[in-house]
Write a structure and sequence with these properties.
about 350 residues; alpha/beta; eight-stranded mixed β-sheet; binds aspartic acid
Length: about 350
Amino acid sequence: MSKPRIHILALGGTIATRPDATGAMQMGLGADDLVSAVPLLASVAEIEAETVSRVGSHSLSFDQLQALATKIRGLEADGIVVTQGTDTLEETSFLLDLLLDLDKPVIVTAAMRNPSLTSPDGPGNLLAAVRVAADPWVRAHAKALGVVVVMLDEVYAASDVLKVHPTRINAFASTQTGPLAALVEDRIVPMALPVRDAIVAAKKHLGGAKDGKAAPVAVFWMSLDESGRLLDAVTTAPDHLGYRGAVIGAMGGGHTPERATDSVLKLAAAIPTVVAPRAGGGPMLRQTYGGPSSEIGLRKGGLIWGGRLHPLKARVLLETCLRAGLSRAIVTEVFDLFG
Ligand code: ASP
């Protein structure tokens, strides 16, 4: 039986670094280097490797990811593996998930330990990602799985995965739902299919969101005794400093400090503003606490409720909605689907 054709697209990141003369790690390796470091890949799939960029994922842009989605749509491979840095993987994978609607696996992977360290995880993660992309169960359920992230022998839904540690090797987790599958020996062991109703419904409005103009979205983290002055600066500045939307990382079930609430409401009147839980995801309250700075008051005041999405993922969804030209009413409807 012929092996599946897996197309690897390398963007950069720690997985693609090499030391310079001072010993500092620099972006440098391309897709061919990554593939040649893992001879076992050839026994799993027919590999095509392409270097898209050599940048740290902390410097990727929405436009670059839009271009990557367009490239992926045009590929004839049976599965796609994207390698990149870990810093923004929780955002980029979710963006690809919103933009792509393919019947084949799209996997994103990376590395926490660079190639100069003992036990770098890049080669193992790349092999695991290709195994997942080539796996019959994954291929049969590709649409139901959406874009997935493979790190340290676990498979995570792009909508849920978070980077939960800045340095250690087991830095990724799906805190709300757990992994979808695990890799053991040379097998993929399925454990769950993600609930994707909200994403599928959102995609109907987004329609691929291919041609829109960038729509920068600011994130404001609410914290003890926050005054709201930074929000006022955006609300009152000419053209809102270029921001087209905002996300508030709110306390608890959807709360902001009372002294900042007027600023929050004014910002929401100026640009679409989503409330998402700074606790890191999970459904927020809708009708428990009264007063102006809790969920009932904020929702009445025009704040869009971000549901169970982490604030960073809410930002990705809001940018994509605004770029697609959706009205505030439709944006509210889309976020409402997330619980
Ligand atoms: N700064 C790197 C990046 O995101 C870190 C990594 O890859 O882990 O590109």
